[in-house]
Amino acid sequence: MSFRGGPGSLHQKKQRKTTRSVNKHIRFLETGETTALLKSSSSVQKVQSFLEKVQKEVQRNQTDHREGGAAADKPPAVTEGGGSRSTEMKRARREKKEADEEDCSSSDESTLKHEQPGFTVGFSTTAAERDEEDEEEEAVPPGRQLLNLQIPDFLQSDAPKDPKEKGKKPKRRSKRRKRQQIPAEVEADSELAKYWAQRYRLFSRFDEGIRLDREGWFSVTPEKIAEHIALRVKHSFPTSELVIDAFCGVGGNTIQFALTGKRVLAVDIDAVKLDLARHNAEVYGVAQRIDFLQGDFLQLAPRLRGDVVFLSPPWGGPNYLTAEVFDIRTMMEPDGYPIFSRAKQISENIVYFLPRNANMDQVVSLAGSGGLVEVEQNFLNNKLKTVTAYFGNLIQLDGAGPG
Fold first, then answer.
1. Residue 138 clears pLDDT 70, i.e. is over it
2. Over 50: is that where the pLDDT of 388 sits?
3. Beta partners for 390?
């Protein structure tokens, strides 16, 4: 135990002073790799000592080479006359050139330039360029020019070469899609304007040729929700092979069921919608997994067989949102109860896609006395959009979703 102001506290202060922190700055390159900034450390000193050894070895080789060829290169003796002076000048120039080469300590492989407090590594020029520089040095003897060192890329500064570009930020590639011109039929209808703005929520591959009629704009299931329902059916009832889409419309749900590997029977009473659904399925590359059947589901149901029945009958247009509670008996055409009864003749495994304000008491009553139903709320961008009721083997009692 030590008291404030006592020797113990002084000892603690000394310990605090000796504590240091080392900052390691990381630079992120355009290639996605990271590299630490070079600092004066033991690793750097090892590099410097290695380069110095290389330089000494190069100098030793050059000295041996010059001594070996001294006898051959030694100029012949001249008598006192007019040629002696020129010979001495040539010899002085040669000695000066050799002294310059020793000072530069240049090699054919690399050149080291040491500056305090840091260091820069560069690579020498080629032999042909070096000969041209030697000739320039002989022409201009008073000064000695340093070699223009090339700095490696990993030691280059990130600062732009042009001072005008210092304040400029690199341009980011825009991920926005090209703005499409609004079709004339959509532009003329004010109610479809908001659906056009949300077209990629309906079909992510809209720009690849998706087609919709007027009713299809506000009746097709948003793609994310349709995908979730299809995956839910796949995981809840993996042995199912054929899904019947009783009211396929322009094919939003039909396409997603086919994308999970299921065989789909797409039924609709409207031939135009059936053609649109076939075309849109071709855009997604799943038309070969779908059979299209035109007719009234209520009349066709007794003759149909399948593992799962998906029900998404017309809700009467966008006006369904004006009601506080959506009555599936009176506000749906045809009546929602007979539709469900016909579907049960085909299979007990039924998916009923309904408005978000659907009457829950009516939905629960469809299961019958003692029956089970699972109601799922579908949110998109934190907004409740629709509800989905699952019957039969599609009910998940453990609450596990499709992932």
1. no
2. yes
3. 351, 374
Cα(393)–Cα(260) distance, rounded to whole angstroms?
18
What the block records as the tokens of 290 is: 């779908």
Helix (H, G, I), strand (E, B) or coil at 371: coil
Helix (H, G, I), strand (E, B) or coil at 127: helix
Main-chain dihedrals φ then ψ at residue 90, nearest 5 degrees: -65, -40
Weakest mean pLDDT among 22-36, 41-55, 240-254, 348-362: 22-36
The residue among 209, 309, 200, 215 whose CA lies nearest residue 253 is: 309
Q: What is the distance, to the nearest Å, from the Cα of residue 388 to the centroid of all Cα atoms in its chain?
A: 33
Report DSSP letters for 30-92, one per residue: TTS-EEEPP-SSHHHHHHHHHHHHHHHHHHHHHHHHHHHTHHHHPPPP--SSHHHHHHHHHHH
Can you give the pLDDT at residue 118? 40
Q: How far apart, in Å, do the first and last CA atoms of the chain sit?
A: 58
| Mean pLDDT along residues 221-234 | 96
Q: Rounded to whole angstroms, how far apart are CA atoms 160 and 318?
A: 56
- 327, 362 in Cβ contact below 8 A? yes
pLDDT tens-digit profile of 15-72? 554 444 434 333 333 444 444 444 455 666 777 788 888 788 878 877 766 666 555 5
- Domain coordinates of the chain in residue numbers? 42-65+94-155, 184-394
**184-394 CATH pick, 3.30.470.20, 3.40.50.150, 3.40.50.300, 3.30.43.10:** 3.40.50.150
How crowded is residue 392: how many other Cβ atoms within 10 Å of its Cβ?
Answer: 20
Pure H helices in 109-222? 127-139, 184-187, 193-197, 199-202, 214-219
pTM equals: 0.57
Phi, psi of 385 (to 5 degrees): -105, -50
For residue 248, what are its two tokens?
A: 């396929």
| Orientation angle between helical segments 82-104 and 42-68, nearest 10 degrees | 160
Give the three-class secondary structure for 199: helix
Q: What is the SS3 assignment for 377?
A: strand
